[in-house]
Amino acid sequence: QVQLVEAGGGLVQAGESLRLSCVASGRTFNNYAMGWFRQSPGKEREFVAALSWNGGNTYYVDSVKGRFTISRDNAKNTVYLQMNSLKPEDTAVYYCAAPPGSGPSYSGRNENLMHYWGKGTQVTVSS
To answer: Strand pairing of 10-13 and 121-126?
Structure first.
């Protein structure tokens, strides 16, 4: 059974940092595009960051560019989201996700094309 499990969320003050991790089990996602998404109360889930299947490209929503970094450790089947200079508007439940297949067909940015989802980790940023 394929599982994605996020961790690393918490309560921090504005300006601080967190590193989220997403550990995959049941399948190797080394050649999969991976994405991070978030959902705030009363809002739709939105794309945050993605990493291409071969790690050659990264994508970010404008609001996090320069502050967040997505990366992966293939040996650990883990994807990370380093979040620096956090702002109150970053408060949300953060989800990692993977598409149904490997390779370049998926960018990891379109949540409608993602197949595997974690249960999320809460990030709360106080002002």
So the answer is: parallel
The backbone torsions φ and ψ at residue 111, rounded to the nearest 5 degrees and listed phi first, read -65, -25
C-alpha–C-alpha distance, residues 87 and 100, integer Å: 32
Query: What does the pLDDT look like over 31-80, one tens digit per residue?
Result: 999 999 999 999 999 999 999 999 899 999 999 999 999 999 999 999 99
* Cα–Cα distance, 117 to 29 (Å, whole number): 13
With 0-12 / 13-18 / 19 or more C-beta atoms within 10 angstroms meaning exposed / middle / buried, residue 79 is: buried
Mean pLDDT of the chain: 96
Query: Which of 97, 14, 8, 12 has the alpha carbon at shortest distance from 48?
Result: 97
Distance CA 9, CA 11 (A): 7
pLDDT tens profile 15-27: 999 999 999 999 8
Question: Using an 8 Å Cβ cutoff, are 5 and 119 in contact?
Answer: yes
